[in-house]
């Protein structure tokens, strides 16, 4: 325990004394509520949080002592259960005297021998009362012998008992227990250390080994309170001491590090205390819908989400420090516990660096202060020593010291620049150098502007990580292209990455692609400007510099085009190819785009996005290969599609003349926008169907990922609105829609739909989906039902509705972009507006980015012409009015 203060504040009331009469639960509950209100007021007045958690522990001690006496002492004799020895003991956090407002009350009822069965009701009555009082109680009733046996077999039990503290009862029982617990007969310190380290690693993996999730668990996430407790538990087990300061004589922590760890714990305690005041049930997660209230309670000021951004920036700074200290101390403990009887294996690399038991160390603790360029040489040396697995604890400490005292950027030194360039060109640069450099704060010492993105959050539901953590994950995704796992997950990107002549340019671009965030202006342009200066400083060849800078400036281009534009339109491909200009740029951009998408949010990458990027890449590559000025024309694409579809139909017992007769009903756009495989699929099924009746087809594994829902039906008003509404009713997400009308007014519409987890529609739900869509097609009207699927997080975000009309190379249709807050049933409302204005919808791209959507709709008027300026103005206003009138985001 780092904080073990004496209670210095005065609690204005204490628990009631109980008589022989029945206890009044309502009265005690009210007193507990009064205590909670008093604690909150004290917290608002900035009374030290360690005093408040200690006060709650003392208050709970008094309450339990009086309840214990009421229930368990025999009123005449004062003996306990026929002279059984009995004790009520606090364990866990309560044993440490750390009780936040909603913390569990962990209790051990300890006896010297099993209690008679007639005494059990008293124990049960006491525990039931505690639950009736609204307390979260964790309890166990054990004999001394059972306790010791369970501690031997269970690490969690052992840990809890190490922090045991007597509340009331026989003190000798606790003394006997602790004498065994702290002996060397169970869980020797080396074994306890290894088990706790494994436990921490497992816990970290549950949080993707990241301290920088935007909705962290302040107790269990890496760098959280549990990491501090892990240090303490290992120290207590090995040294039998209870505070970090007690470890100072063993040279595990300097006084400065002890103060830093104490400050970090105090900050995390304040956040946890505020969180427990905001939520009604025990929870340690800083969810979006809680962050603003917590920030205000902690005194952060500003408009909008500024208080949250400032609070979370402080939070990430603290968990980074905790992570560093945790790793350093665990390494020091390892040296003390696991190698104390072994001879340390040491060999020299050069005059500056040695290897100690597989870890690199410096020979002079003043090395980095005397010559800061040695910091970059350290990481370069680490790369050149394949058998070295990491950095020694002493060197970590000296790097932390240098970080505080070196004032100039390392990139200003020519020797550091040379080492940095050598580092990023190394195949293992990401894993062995760049990630550790970031974790130890060295990138902030080297790259201009890096410090401003460290711990920088983005208050939305799209980005899962802080900007710096996201950047590190982009680097890891790029590195994964060289691994077997990455090649299986991203076969196209991996193949291209390994063909790149200078893959390190992607590393540089990744480092700078988001470095402009947090500044005023377009972060892509700002990042490109910063990288331009960086490249000049490092004397990169002009051609390399131009490529890297272009990648940063255009790093969103491919993602926006693939997901938010009609990539079946040759004009869109032509325009994209004009911006890319070369196959080299296209290859680099695809790799960076895939890594960027995957590193933003674990749920973003799916087969549909993969297929979109693949389709865009192949189409653009074909244009670039054939010459930008001689790209395939629409009529030649239609001719090719028909030819390939005819070849596919030859596999079926269908006369081609029947297919030609059917195709005469179709428009030019049908053959332009549907692939040969889709055309053949439609044709086979339609020729085996009564063409006077609607048809619904489902392909669980189409060529483009997701699930393809095809509809053949007489065209009618509200068709798009009613079908999209029915899909929404199944809690499916629409990602793409292609709306084609035959010459005789039949709809040939396709919807690409996915489950919320990004997978194809579950097989057991497919028949019901087809059945319900068929019913919709047979209805003569449309009546929208309310979809009660609200996302409670959405109410904390304000996304003004925007309706933009995009300038495109082809002017035969109007491209409308809708940006607004995501809402269940949104497409149904949009479809109703289109019908109201008698507009024809030809295609829709549905892009959900966290809490908001950026949808694209391709429209004409009822005569098939682009919308006039007047119609665009009317459409914009009607959509804004309808969407903004929705009740709480429910459709």
UniProtKB/TrEMBL annotation:
Domain HD: from-to ranges: 467-589
Needed cofactors: Mg(2+)
Family matches, as CDD domains: ACT_ACR-UUR-like_2 (cd04899), ACT_UUR-like_1 (cd04900), HDc (cd00077), NT_GlnE_GlnD_like (cd05401)
Classification via SMART domains: HDc
Matching Gene3D superfamilies: Beta Polymerase, domain 2 (3.30.460.10), cca-adding enzyme, domain 2 (1.10.3090.10)
UniProt cross-references to Pfam families, sorted A to Z: GlnD_UR_UTase, HD, NTP_transf_2
InterPro entries: ACT-like_dom_sf, ACT_dom, HD/PDEase_dom, HD_domain, NT_sf, PII_UdlTrfase/GS_AdlTrfase, Polymerase_NTP_transf_dom, UTase/UR
Magnesium found in the keyword field: yes
Zinc keyword on record: no
Residues annotated as domain ACT: 708-789, 815-891
One function term, GO molecular function aspect: phosphoric diester hydrolase activity
Means of activity regulation: Uridylyltransferase (UTase) activity is inhibited by glutamine, while glutamine activates uridylyl-removing (UR) activity.
EC number assigned by the record: 2.7.7.59, 3.1.4.-
Coiled coil: none
Gene Ontology BP terms: regulation of nitrogen utilization
Catalysed conversion reaction: [protein-PII]-L-tyrosine + UTP = [protein-PII]-uridylyl-L-tyrosine + diphosphate; guanosine 3',5'-bis(diphosphate) + H2O = GDP + diphosphate + H(+); [protein-PII]-uridylyl-L-tyrosine + H2O = [protein-PII]-L-tyrosine + UMP + H(+)
Ranges where the record places region Uridylyl-removing: 349-707
Membership in a protein family: Belongs to the GlnD family.
Entry text on domains: Has four distinct domains: an N-terminal nucleotidyltransferase (NT) domain responsible for UTase activity, a central HD domain that encodes UR activity, and two C-terminal ACT domains that seem to have a role in glutamine sensing.
Protein name (record): Bifunctional uridylyltransferase/uridylyl-removing enzyme
Lineage: Bacteria, Pseudomonadati, Pseudomonadota, Gammaproteobacteria, Orbales
